[in-house]
Amino acid sequence: MTQFVTLLKVLFKSRYRRDRGVVGKARYRSLMEQKTGGKFDPMWIVYGLLGLIAVPVVAGICWLVAVYTPVFAANGLLPYMLLMIYITVMLAVLVFGLIGMLTYVYINRDAEFLAGLPIKGWKLFLAKLCMVYLGELALAAGIIVPVGITMGIAGGFGFAFYVSILLSVLFVPALPLLLASLLAIPLMYCVSFFKNKGALTSIVVLLLVGTVFTAYYTVYFKFIAFQQGGTGDADIEAAVAGLISGLQSVKYVLYPVFALIEFGMALPTFGMTGAGAQLLALGIALAAMAAVVGITSFIANLVYSKSAAAQLENSSKRAKRAMAYESSGGVMKALIKKEWRTLIRETAFAFQCLFGLVVGPVLVVILSLNFKSSFSGAAETAGELTGAALDPALVQTLLSGIIMAIILMIVSGMNITASTAISREGKNFYQMKTMPVPYKTQVQAKLWLSLMISMPGSVIAFVIGAFLIPIPPLEAVLEGLFLCVYSYAFACFALRMDLMKPKLNWTTPTQAVKSNRSSTAPLLLNMLTGMVLAASFIVLGIFVSVLLAIGVLLVLVIAAAPLLHRYLFKSADRLFEEIEP
Amino acid sequence: MLQIENLSKQYANSGVYAVENLNLTVNPGEIFGFLGPNGAGKTTTIKMLTGILPFQYGRISVAGIDIKADPIGAKRNIGYVPDSGVVYDKLSGAEYLNFMADVYGVPANARREKIDALLATFNLTDAAGNQIRSYSHGMKQKIVVIGALLHDPKLWVLDEPLTGLDPQSSFDLKNMMRRHCDAGNTVFFSTHVLEVAEKICDRIGIVNKGHLVFVGSMKDIKEWKRDESLEKLFLDITGADPFQ
User: Fold this and answer.
1) Considering chain A, what percentage of its residues have pLDDT values greater than 70?
2) Which residues on chain A are in Cβ contact (under 8 Å) with B83?
3) Is pLDDT above 60 for A21?
4) What's the Cα-to-Cα distance from B190 to each of A121, A124, A222, A319, rounded to whole Å?
5) Which helix (H) or strand (E) segment is B157 a member of?
6) CB within 10 Å: which end of chain A, N or C, has fewer?
7) How many DSSP H helices and E strands does chain B contain?
């Protein structure tokens, strides 16, 4: 047990301790002492901004829960509402946990070091699994705790309910994580036959994310449409009935979790009622969870041992390939090719950089269809009530604004290719400085790669939205142009941020993208900017004209783009020179 | 080939010089060994002359090109092999070598012969199609060496190049260094293995606490210290107590 705890502490520090290390240390410290006279960490500003955004979002979700809890309770559907929330958390944990399992547990650079320690394999595996679990626990707690407390208050539940919420925070992320550790096994086996394992893993994970998001939002909007009653879909009641029936089936598969709900809400369990039923439900939940944890840990540990052994033996039996002598046709192309290959073949990087590209179009399709129905329904109702028809152009403007917001915040904003362009180099950065290629050219190559991801993503998502809404051609062309120029401007800004203080001293790829101010600050700023721009477009479009609204936005970005371009390239050489790997 | 004049580097606001007033000339055709205890400034010096680290004072010129005035021109003449063996391990050996050939401007028609020859020398032909992350430490070191030699650099800079290499590869690398210099080029390398320095270097330099305290050939050492070994000289100069 002591060994396990010691190992856990080391892994925790290695993963989460702030980097006070080598890169730019002297310069960073001198800057801090000169400018602030103390030890204030600007990262707190970023945390503060995160809090400012998170608080209204969480508050909004809690408000929805408070409103719908009595409605669902009256229909006897409250347990299923809570189960849906748990399933939502589980899906998120499954997706992010799968990536964590692949990049931190099964395939990791510290396999050799850990294998040499006098610690049994199952302890190593459990310690690593705990590390991934802790990350997912934070995600689960962030959703379940506020929602659970709100539901408890709105539903008038007793002490047992809050205990069940606490237990569910621990259990709900555990199940999908264990499932992820099993899902990773066939995934790793399948990709082992292919040349570019890293790239294929990245693509599979992204497709999985896209599928999960599509399925989730489809179900979610069906549910909301039923509540609003405004979709005009004749089969919506049947669809919701099917959903409830589905959840009733699912509860048996997820019985350990549903048993917790039965315990918390004092529901009958196996025909029993009262305190006895609650204790029985709690006992079933704990025992089932222990069994699931034990069995899955046993299986996954076997795979971990083999995976670690394979890594250490550098087994590449399936991977003998012929040598190719290919010129890329120039230094810029060679740099971009190298950038792309190193990005797509590292699952953690590929997921973070391409996430928006996959999810953005999915969200645009789903939101376009569902909001279009909702607004049309509302327009009809408003028309019936007021006797005057609601202007369809108003609906179109609202939808355009929403699509724009999604593309700006998710496709452009969540694309961290530019904001981690230098950080992703890590310990390889020295090669960038020794190559006989001007620093500006290398920065240009990184910028091009970022644009090659964000621009097509924005255009594809926008074209889909423009087709579905639909948006008149002239407006569509101008809006598309706005999104492209915005992508360029944002990429220049984000790359400059990373040039100023890159995080090169990382040991896992996740560190390069997560605990990195260069990736977090531009992302937040972009989200805020995206919201403001989209809101401005909607307001100007409704109260003045859409063309004027687009014109104003276009003028703004066309003015900003060259300034940000200059902001990046004017100091690129100096900043590059100052980075000391 | 390599001229270093009054080179000094001070870490920001610390007042400590990593390297101070270093003056050194390395001629074409020389293998120059750069020795010193840990933390003496060897790697810092190497990083400055390869353009990785900036420096405040002094001048470095490679093949007559000032590294500050024309960094690109200077870097084109340098092939650098770091001590860490860190390389883009998501690329295959072939992809990495093609990338290096592209950035150093090795023509497409010439690279096949060069790459094949170097891969055969280091016994990496079969592994070239695999991702570098599947390589052993020694194999990674070899692929980095090959990448640094593709463009026939006039100055070959190696930081602890023999670490992790098997005896055959070490032998081949030393031979390669000699042949490279016999062709009129220069090799500048740092090492902790004094026997290697004694055997293959034309001249050596010993750095201690940021200062170059000795430069000369083995003959100069023997004349100065009357047949004492390089090891004894090294320990005397760096003030190390062999029995501590």
Assistant:
1) 75
2) none
3) no
4) 39, 38, 69, 36
5) strand B155-159
6) N
7) 9, 10
What is the rounded average pLDDT of the residues A372-383? 61
Dist CA A490 CA A533 (whole Å)? 13
Q: For residue A390, what is the DSSP state? A: P
Instruction: State the alpha helices, DSSP H only, in A17-77.
Output: 25-36, 43-74
Residues of B in contact with A313 (CB under 8 A): none
Under the banding of pLDDT at 50, 70 and 90, the label for residue A481 is: very high
Q: Which of A338, A504, A573, A576 to mutate to test the interface with B (most CBs of B within 10 A)?
A: A338
Residue A240 has pLDDT above 70, yes or no: no
Residue A317 pLDDT:
45
Q: Are B157 and B46 in contact (CB under 8 A)?
A: yes
**How confident is the model at residue B125, as a pLDDT?**
92
Report pLDDT for A295. 75
Answer yes or no: are the C-beta atoms of A132 and A99 closer than 8 Å. Answer: no
The partner residue sitting opposite A325, judged by closest CB among B82, B92, B115, is: B115
ipTM over 0.90: no
Q: Chain A: nearest CA to B130, how far in angstroms?
A: 6
Q: Which residues of B touch A436 (CB under 8 A)?
A: 72-73, 75-76, 103-105
pLDDT at res. B11: 76
In contact, A410 and A352? CB cutoff 8 Å = no
Strand partners, B131: B92
C-alpha span between B95 and B146 (Å, rounded): 13
What pLDDT is stored for residue B244 in this prediction? 44
**Distance (Å) from the alpha carbon of B201 to chain A's nearest alpha carbon:** 25
Stretch among A5-14, A146-155, B48-57 having the lowest mean pLDDT: A5-14
Beta-bridged to residue B60, according to DSSP, are: B4
**Probe site for chain A from B10, B62, B90 (most A CB atoms < 10 A):** B90
Which residue matches tokens 């403007």? Answer: A397
**With contact defined as beta carbons under 8 Å apart, do B7 and B60 qualify?**
yes
Q: What is the pLDDT of residue B86?
A: 81
A430 to B47: CB separation less than 8 angstroms, yes or no: yes
Tally of helices (H runs) and strands (E runs) in chain A: 22, 0
Residue A321 has pLDDT above 70, yes or no: no
HSE at residue A390, side-chain half, CA atoms within 13 A, is: 19
Write out chain A residues lying below 8 Å of B124, CB-based.
none
Rounded-to-integer distance, Cα A529 and Cα A408, Å:
8
Count other Cβ atoms within 10 Å, centred on residue A10: 12
Please tell me which residue, A112 or B175, carries the higher pLDDT value. Answer: B175
Instruction: Find the CB nearest B104 among A321, A427, A436.
Output: A436
Map tokens 């293998």 to a residue.
B31
Give the closest of A30, A323, A580 to B94, CB-based. Answer: A323
Mean pLDDT of all residues in A279-292: 85
Q: Which two tokens stand for residue A110?
A: 């510290």
Question: Mean pLDDT, chain A, as a whole number?
Answer: 79
Q: What is the pLDDT of residue A32?
A: 46
Q: How far apart are CA A288 and CA A296, in angstroms?
A: 12
Residue A356 near residue A417 (C-beta atoms within 8 A): no
